[in-house]
Amino acid sequence: MNVLAGFPRLFIWFGFLTTSAAVFYYGAILSGVYKHPLMAQFRRYGEEWIVSPVCRLSLAMGACLLTASLLIRDQLLPTSYFYRMFPPSNLFVLALASFASYFVLKSRPALRLTLPMWYHEMLIYTSRQERRQIAFAWLRVPRRLRWRMSGDQASFRVWAELVRLTVIYGAYDPDDPWDHWT
Asked: Which residues are CB-contacts of 84 (< 8 A; sequence separation ≥ 6)?
């Protein structure tokens, strides 16, 4: 009987940790710190598929707040500090607001296409073929350099511009890249 009583608590903790990780993941994508999932979209063949990480962030935030309200209600005493500062009813209302914001974001394309600035700039200033080649070049970059460029937007822009220039002008003949100009 004691083992069955601990299962819902374990399930709530697992749900809270999973949804918290999802909130950090989608937050990192939306803020532009983690570029790899969005760069993977450029590598696809066929029509371009525009992602909307803000919708998934609102769903993950709602699920995280919902599990946090269950966790606080189940784990803490009503006289504790966290229970008084973050009542489960307030977290539940915030979770409902986050789920409602998901439906608002889905219904309005201008809000749904809230994207990181680097992604928006690449959609505007590069062609489909250039974006694909930048995405495949991203795979060739060592992992530590990818993490560094993910955090530094200016160095990422310089790198993407260098790849773009190489693709447009210098990729014809590796022995004589200036042959194109004569």
From this structure: none
